[in-house]
Backbone:
């Protein structure tokens, strides 16, 4: 499903409504919701809306039944300005009554980034076990997309996209991002896609080409990782602003 909205405030409101409805549905049907958050700057206003007691969304969610996880994290401590957890904590987590043990952050502060990835495998296990889930299917996976079409920390040319043997066994990987000269911790493609619903939030002109490649371009997943979502398109909610939609052939007028 593709929703095109006017601007970033409308984007955050549309995403807040979609995510809140998905969480409400999951709690009704499964007595809980396992939600993976994304990093970057796009979701900051969304997180603020979800945590704002003056908005309707916060009270609609029974936060005692929500487990929060992350799709990826930078190799930094949680108080670092680059931390995906840190941003979400400041904008959302600190403002909602979610039990601390239901907030599962990736420990980007660990020197050994592979250890952080292995540890998060256990954290994932603990979250699903605590939620009495026999499968390891997320209820909501929130993702953003980079200008190069990356999702989470799965960048163009990533070994995770070339069918490397290890991706088959792990749900979490430590990946070197050469263009960033930095390590990242990320859920692997299969794990990202293993969700009942995926919400993809994209804003801005700079993303217009990547959006077009993701939705309309010829299949080249290793160069356009967001094309991974085509494999589960019936469960994906693309919510983008007019600027990000600017290169779509099918973009409706207005
Ligand atoms: C990260 C995110 C990443 C992000 C995109 C878009 O760690 O940066 O997980 O996948 O969603 O890079 O980032 P912006 O919202 O800042 O454009």
Residues:
């Amino acid at each position: 499903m593709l929703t095109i909205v006017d601007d970033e405030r409308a984007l955050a409101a549309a995403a807040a409504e979609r995510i809140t409805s998905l969480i409400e549905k999951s709690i009704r049907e499964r007595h809980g919701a396992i939600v993976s958050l994304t990093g970057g700057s796009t979701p900051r206003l969304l997180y603020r809306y979800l945590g704002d007691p003056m908005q309707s969304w916060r009270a609609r969610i029974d936060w005692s039944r929500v487990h929060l996880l992350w799709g990826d994290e930078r190799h930094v401590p949680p108080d670092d300005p680059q931390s995906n957890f840190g941003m979400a904590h400041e904008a959302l987590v600190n403002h909602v009554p979610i039990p601390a043990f239901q907030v599962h952050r990736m420990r980007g502060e660990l020197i050994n980034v592979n250890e952080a990835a292995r540890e998060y495998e256990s954290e994932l296990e603990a979250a699903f076990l605590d939620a009495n889930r026999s499968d390891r299917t997320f209820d909501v996976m929130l993702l953003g997309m980079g200008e190069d079409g990356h999702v989470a920390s799965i960048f163009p040319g990533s070994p995770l996209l070339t069918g490397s043997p290890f991706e088959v066994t792990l749900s979490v990987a430590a990946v070197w991002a050469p263009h960033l000269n930095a390590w990242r911790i990320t859920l692997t493609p299969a794990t990202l896609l293993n969700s009942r619903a995926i919400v993809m939030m994209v804003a801005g002109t700079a993303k217009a080409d990547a959006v077009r490649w993701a939705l309309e371009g010829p299949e080249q997943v290793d160069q356009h990782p967001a094309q991974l979502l085509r494999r589960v398109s019936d469960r994906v909610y693309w919510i983008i602003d007019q600027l990000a939609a600017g290169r779509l052939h099918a973009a409706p007028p207005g």
